[in-house]
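Re: the multi-chain job from yesterday

Posting the exact lines I submitted so nobody has to dig through the queue logs.
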Amino acid sequence: MIDIILATHNKDKQKELSKALNSKDVNILSLQDFPEIGEIIEDGETLTDNALIKAREVYRITGIPSISDDTGLEVDALGGAPGVFSARYAGENCSYLDNVNKILKSMSKIPIDLRGAQFKTIMVFVSEKMELVSEGSVKGLITKEAKGIGGFGYDPVFYIPEMMKTFAEMTIEEKNRISHRGIATRNMIDLLCSHQIIPNSQENA
Ligand code: IMP
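And the result, structure tokens for all chains:
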């Protein structure tokens, strides 16, 4: 049994990640278990920088292997924005709704065939012995209006044509199956297995 800390304060991400990683061979801890770890400033220039900043800091303080991820929404018509600034696109301390409204407004004149976007997640594992990096991405379209009440962040405006649904209209299971974070998580699990950090036999959702 190995302890791994998910280095995030975001309860929504934690829920998704725990569901995918949970098994009898991995004991998932969260930052709620370590109140002494305050907010970690993510001031890197890339998603990988930010993921490494969080996981290295949590590992440095606790000595327990840590996993963290960083996600960006890259919109073609906005030249790849908001990207690494996805969390604070509408300004410091903005809400998910502020970000959704800003993106809808910025793209109000963009026709449907030019509304392509992708979510990209970089996930890292940091321990005494090694650092591992996995990636996952998913392509979709930014809708003209918000739809659905599930998920979080930009989910109500991120539409997957193959499923004819936004992420916010999907169950957690449906989203995990195809999402950037779901893919990055499964790639990370493969890496952890191939480096014998977790056993191959484990069943992951
Ligand atoms: P983070 O750095 O991974 O927390 O992600 C940055 C921002 O991207 C978040 O604050 C959300 O606004 C957005 N985001 C990340 N993952 C998702 C997702 O799965 N769906 C919708 N928005 C997301």
